[in-house]
């Protein structure tokens, strides 16, 4: 899922691309949320005593619980969410999907076994790994969103790609997903942790693509190439290529074509081996021209409506066994937030002044200094550890 | 950098010092105290941008609804010296803690060296020979600077700052937001909430004896806008800085609330309006 280690690379090389803030800082903004990813995380995270939440009939309700209350929290903070569901996965993803399926099957078996012999902890661990989002889950969430008056769209293929298109076109302020490949799809801003529970007190991360590119000193094509090399959903990762190697390879050779050339004709023998079937061009193609609805398509005309209170009560309380009081008070909140006049943000009127070159340069220098400092510290710590180890015991 | 032994102008002590880049002496510490007190609830950390024209500050609140813009002109200080543009990143809560150590009538001197780690504040008592000195650690603040376009406002209202504060506080009891309507007849602040509604209307008014109590309304076209009272009440903390306040409004642009200070210095607040739903 996503791009391996991309978050830590950005953190190290382009720290000013990431802003942390509270959820309420984003009020008045529209945000496209990757629904499939969110539902999956709800199924994993919204639990009680390690079990998924269920109603009396034994139907899972974790996803509805998550969708309902987390969306409520988002709306309550003045944000207008819209959800994007996954469509059919692209062909190139079939390899990754097959692997995921195998892992699930394995986890299911392990889960069964753990139930027989393992500890409660093991049972819970494997039970989380067997989670799969089914069509029913998706359909129930869509029904819930309609009742809540929150718009959604089903993407032709990948939800992240659709979110990115909407953000790029200015239909929404940002794409919200945990999946870093949203950046590869050219979303100008990515929000992480938006659908997390309030109790986790995780700050919302706001990642700006332009600053990521500036920090890495790359254009978008090189960035996508870097992500493919790091390991994405579409092609297998190259063995022995970790984050720093990938970064160096792209920096040195510029494009993936050149990197592939270099790996194949490395004069110093074969350090890296490419997987047999490595269609990186197709993967790049998917990132650059994914199958999405254009932002001016009629499907992308979103409306936020008043919630259908009775419908919500019928669905959540009668069918799914939620508490009626809580559902009704939540519905009141939804209605209220829709009605109150929106507070505008200053950015709509005053535009940020471009930083002068001098400022940009000094910022870059500062970042580099910081990086050097942490590296030095790490080295020093390593050295100390080594020294501590090499000392014979008992003499100190 | 080479260290030189020199005599500190203020304390007369011999001590090594780096080249002083900024030295700004304020006759009354009270001014800075009031400014910081007025903005510290809106902004936590911000850069004080110093150059030869004075000390400026611009910062938005966390949710990017309000903007503070302060300008203390070089003329407000005596003497004022700033050899190179420098941004001092200061945590306002820390600054307030130190400023509380000053008496209102103290003379305050701000000092910073070249490439500083700290900003130095010296308070001299005007009555006794007491001299206190504090250093505040500086921080790196990567701040966005907003360009504020020159605006010809449709309505400019000047009124006693205490009056504006009273209106905001009174209406806050009823509602979260206030509608400000300026017409040729006067300016009306109205609100409606769960318990009922309220309105205060002011007309142009000239008080010959006490010009501070004048209400002046300059209008090129009628204006009606809605704002969050929470922010306005917050701005009103600056009322102690000036006896009058100027409100500038134009339809569909942020409100400007300006407290004028001596020597053309000012403390300005901008507030984005509330807008009806576009759908």
From TrEMBL, chain A:
It is found in: Mitochondrion; Nucleus, Nucleolus; Nucleus, Nucleoplasm. Its main location: mitochondrion. Transmembrane segments: none annotated. GO terms for molecular function: 5'-3' exonuclease activity; 5'-flap endonuclease activity; DNA binding; magnesium ion binding. CDD domains: H3TH_FEN1-Euk, PIN_FEN1. One of its GO terms (cellular component) is mitochondrion. Binds 2 magnesium ions per subunit. They probably participate in the reaction catalyzed by the enzyme. May bind an additional third magnesium ion after substrate binding. It holds the Pfam family XPG_I. Residues 357-372, 381-390 have a biased composition (Basic and acidic residues). Its cofactor is Mg(2+). Residues 1-107 form the XPG N-terminal domain. Its EC number is 3.1.-.-. One of its GO terms (biological process) is base-excision repair. It is an enzyme of class 3 (hydrolase). Keywords: DNA damage, DNA repair, DNA replication, Endonuclease, Exonuclease, Hydrolase, Magnesium, Metal-binding, Mitochondrion, Nuclease, Nucleus, Phosphoprotein. Residues 357-396 are annotated as: Disordered. HAMAP family: Fen (MF_00614). PANTHER family: FLAP ENDONUCLEASE 1 (PTHR11081:SF9), FLAP ENDONUCLEASE FAMILY MEMBER (PTHR11081). Belongs to the XPG/RAD2 endonuclease family. FEN1 subfamily. This is Flap endonuclease 1. It comes from Letharia lupina. The lineage of its organism: Eukaryota, Fungi, Dikarya, Ascomycota, Pezizomycotina.
From TrEMBL, chain B:
Residues 147-274 form the Proliferating cell nuclear antigen PCNA C-terminal domain. GO terms for molecular function: DNA binding; DNA polymerase processivity factor activity. One of its GO terms (biological process) is lagging strand elongation. The keyword Nucleus applies. InterPro entries: DNA_clamp_sf, Pr_cel_nuc_antig, Pr_cel_nuc_antig_C, Pr_cel_nuc_antig_CS, Pr_cel_nuc_antig_N. The keyword Disulfide bond does not apply. Transmembrane segments: none annotated. Belongs to the PCNA family. PANTHER family: PROLIFERATING CELL NUCLEAR ANTIGEN (PTHR11352). This is DNA sliding clamp PCNA. It comes from Letharia lupina.
